[in-house]
Amino acid sequence: MSTRYEKLFTDLAEKGEGAFVPFLMLGDPTPADALEIVRTVVEAGADALELGVPFSDPVADGPTIQTSHIRALDGGVTVDDALNQIRTIRAEFPDLPIGMLIYGNVPFTRGLDHFYREFGEAGADSILLPDVPVREGAPFIAAAERAGVDPIFIAPAQAAESTLEGVAAHSRGYIYAISRDGVTGTERESSVTGLAEVVENVKRFGGAPILLGFGISSPQHVADAIAAGASGAISGSAITKIMDKYIEGNSVTDMPGLKAELGEFVSAMKAATR
Q1: Separation CA 128–CA 150 (nearest Å)
Q2: Which among 11, 75, 91, 182 is least buried, having the fewest CB atoms inside 10 angstroms?
């Protein structure tokens, strides 16, 4: 049986499109609001979702995404709450690929096998642990495969050959290539310089389709990613910045306005994949 990712990338290739994948934090600013925001981006054309689980020390994230971690934690959101939200999203969107971005202490705390099993059973297709490099990935890969979850690894912009080879060999579903070094955020834009080279290097080792992330904040960035040979792009900080305009504390001040602006943004980003 093909996975949701395989089906998605096959269908998109047949249509001559790339994938646009928004990143959203579960529970931000509340679980109910987060679900409403998920529905908005899917209706606007998102091909898959990348969902975060709030964490107190998100080392790979810049200040924008850190804010969404803090908001969700301030609202009392737990890992169990996140799992409940995934179950709801999976029930509503049975064919949509759902990827998770979760920091490594969560699987350590919950136990690797238990962690991958519970996220897989909730409906997650893949899990990326941004603070676990592929060279330290063996126990995570084994536990993911036992649970039927795709492990995802990051291909850094300035990666050694051995790292790219490991990422290509062990990532299932897709490979997360980063367009520049550093942390997530729109403060520094995506750079296509060297991107074609990174894509080409990873592709030499075979491997899953490549999605480009870090600093993807405009339709031009998406078009550049596709032109460089990536199968799509992931955008998180730009979406969080839109949300920030409509959130005070843990309350959305204008949900219709937020949904309208988010919908327009996602539609424009998706259009750039064609």
Answers
A1: 9
A2: 91
pTM of the model: 0.92
Q: How many CA atoms lie within 13 A of 242 on its CB side?
A: 23
Tell me, what DSSP letter sits at residue 230? -
175-178 and 210-213 beta bridge pairing? parallel
What are the residue numbers of the active site? 50, 61
Bridge partners (DSSP) listed for residue 247: 252
3-27 confidence digits (pLDDT tens): 999 999 999 999 999 999 999 999 9
The residue extents of the domains of the chain are 4-271
- Write the single-letter amino acid at 182: G
DSSP H helices in the chain: 4-15, 31-43, 63-74, 79-92, 105-110, 112-122, 138-147, 161-170, 195-204, 219-227, 237-244, 255-271
Task: Return the H-helix or E-strand segment holding 65.
Answer: helix 63-74
Of the candidates 201, 169, 177, the one whose C-alpha atom is nearest the C-alpha of residue 21 is 177
Summarize pLDDT for 70-112 with one digit per residue, the tens. Answer: 888 888 889 999 999 999 999 999 999 999 999 988 999 999 9
